[in-house]
Amino acid sequence: MGERDNFSNRFGALVALIGSAVGLGNLWRFPYLVGRNGGAAFIIIYICIVLVICLPLMLCEMVVGRRSKSNVFGAFRKLAPGSHWNIIGILAVLSAVTILSFYSVVGGWTLAYLVKSLGFGFHAVAKGDGAAFSGIFKDFVTSPVQPLLYTLAFMAITGFVVIFGVNRGIEKTSKWMMPIMLVMIVGIVIWSMTLPGSSAGFRYLFKPDFSHVGWNTVLAALGQAFFSLSLGAGTIMTYASYIRKDENILRISAGTVLGDTVFAILAGCAIMPAVFSYGVSPAQGPGLVFVVLPNIFANMPMGSIIAIMFFIILFFAAITSSISLMEVPVAFLIEECHMKRKTAVLVSFVSILALGCVCSLSQGVLGGVKIFGKSIFDFFDFMSANIFMTIGGLLLVIFVGWKLGKAAFKDEMTNGGRLHGANWLLDFFFFIIKFAAPAVIAVIFFTNLI
Ligand code: PFF
């Protein structure tokens, strides 16, 4: 095992972290959750949760990762030798692998739709025929072979990036993909603004209506914030272990949170005005980006160009998140099982692909197979989001709050006292980590279970 890689500077770390955070969660899930949960009211609750609960949790991952400079399992051996805290590391690897198993399937769909948009495929479908678009999507995801090939291609691209390592693979890829995504999404927002009747979409996004807000809204926002910020799956911890000792991890965390949230809102601004302008319901479920949007693109001025841009964004977003997920088991295998990076990538690739194929087939031929009443795909989603990520997150805040302690937390946050200022802020965050976050995460966990 050679020298451990590092991100080359703050910008490199930041784009990689934002790349992990910005993903299908922002573009695929956030807009429809906003649509279902009362528009701006949801966004306001979401932002509060992100700042008060998720940012402190991200700091925990940062502190553990950067302090130990180890993979998710080795981190706890270094920080709490001889203890069982490394169970958090096992949970993190399990989370990353289960998430990637179904994420790679949806990643494959984005690739397929990108290919379709490049061939101007949506225009071939009868204009305005919503049923046709939903038929195409259904036929595609339930067919036995095509989605598997796209999942395979998506995972192969992920593996290809991860093989090159932290610097030449992950950082380099994020450095060109993220700016392109930003420019393109801003372009689509501007396009969306020019559509007739689009203002209704903006009003919907930004005019708060708290009349439909309930406990479920808060839970939905919490779950989404967790997923969107890649918390509880070991990715932040793993990436943090590649951050140099002289970087300011508070700033990097704040930058990641800001970047992810801005991106989610931009996605809303790109999608909702078009949805309103076209007169479809904003409360569409997961089919929003694969059914409703292609239909809109096929019917709008410049739609084919916008479709290509949109699916490039979606694909880039998925791939940068996917590489961060794959790096978790890869770093674990390299450091704990003494594998070469290439072997570690191959082992991860094959195992995740096998699970991914099962997830993909569960949309069609394996549709009859149910685990606790859920399809395999939904079961993986449920296990990762509701069990592994939440328990992992819960144990992590308890670890930092009660075992690692305030002195070590502050020491890492301030780079051994070399960074000054914001002392009260660190006290505040530590208070949340120690008392509020465990309670809140435990409540989410049990409510979701019931
Ligand atoms: N944050 C990613 C998204 O919003 O799509 C998903 C994700 C990536 C979740 C990495 C968890 C993770 F560790």
Q: What's the layout of helices and strands?
A:
Elements: H1 10-21, H2 24-36, H3 40-68, H4 74-79, H5 87-118, H6 130-142, H7 146-163, H8 165-193, H9 199-206, H10 215-228, H11 235-240, H12 249-277, H13 292-299, H14 303-336, H15 341-361, E1 370-371, E2 374-375, H16 376-404, H17 406-413, H18 423-449
Antiparallel strand pairs: 1-2
Helix pairs in contact: 1-8, 1-12, 1-14, 2-10, 2-12, 3-10, 3-12, 3-16, 3-18, 5-7, 5-14, 5-15, 5-16, 7-8, 7-14, 7-15, 8-12, 8-14, 9-12, 13-14, 14-15, 16-17, 16-18
The structure holds 4-fluoro-L-phenylalanine.
Could you characterize the architecture of this molecule?
- The longest helix has 34 residues, at 303-336.
- Helix content is 75%, strand content 1%.
- A hairpin with a 2-residue loop joins strand 1 and strand 2.
- It has a single domain (10-390), classed as Orthogonal Bundle (Hydantoin permease).
- It is mostly helical and 450 residues long.
- The structure holds 4-fluoro-L-phenylalanine.
- Residues 20-21, 23-26, 96, 99, 227-228, 230, 233, 235, 321, 324-325 line the site of 4-fluoro-L-phenylalanine (PFF).
Summarize the structure.
Helix content is 75%, strand content 1%.
CATH topology: Hydantoin permease
- CATH superfamily annotation: Hydantoin permease
CATH architecture: Orthogonal Bundle
**Strand count, sense and closure of the main sheet?**
2 strands, antiparallel
CATH structural class: Mainly Alpha
Mean pLDDT: 92
What structural category do the secondary elements indicate? mainly alpha
